[in-house]
Amino acid sequence: MWELGAIELGNFTLGRTTVDSPIYINLRKLISSPHALQRCADIIRLKLEALLSMRHPQVQPFTLVAGVPFGGLHVATAFSLQVNTPMIYIHPPGTAKESLIEGNYVRGQSCLIIDDLITGGGSIAQTALSLREAGLVTHNAVTLIDRQEGGQAALKANGINLVSILTLDQIATYLRYSGRIEAPDYDRIVRYIQSRRDA
To answer: Following CA atoms 32, 97, 90, 99 in sequence, which dihedral angle do they give, to the nearest 10 degrees?
Structure first.
């Protein structure tokens, strides 16, 4: 992500929930690197296989993958190809087709939701609601990055178990101790994460 320019430092307001963030992560840049995108899909596969193989599985089996527009679509597509599992998606809110599900499915199928990044959890929760209204079963969601701003707890309240590959804290720690960012930037990110946890 760092080499792709997907991580920026500064002062960012992102959507309705993220204000004055010292770090911005643009995972859409993954589409510029097929190797990186494929690697992300493989990491998700390995993580889910491990969680499914436990004595008490941490995720439910699924027969469909649903990408969250727009950021989650490319990750979900790569994962769908990686595991040979059909994919569907719902048009984003505010469009003429917002309730339309693209792709083939059967009521009662179990669907794994995939997004690139989670902040407050609203996009995944809305996707889950639409899928459930269409008769699909949604217990689990996967995201590459959890910004640790309340999304996991919000999804849990909606009956969705979130599996995150990386957290913002893990990314900041790696960037600092690999020499990619300086101590003041690292400290700003850590303070921001803590402030969002306490909010």
So the answer is: 160
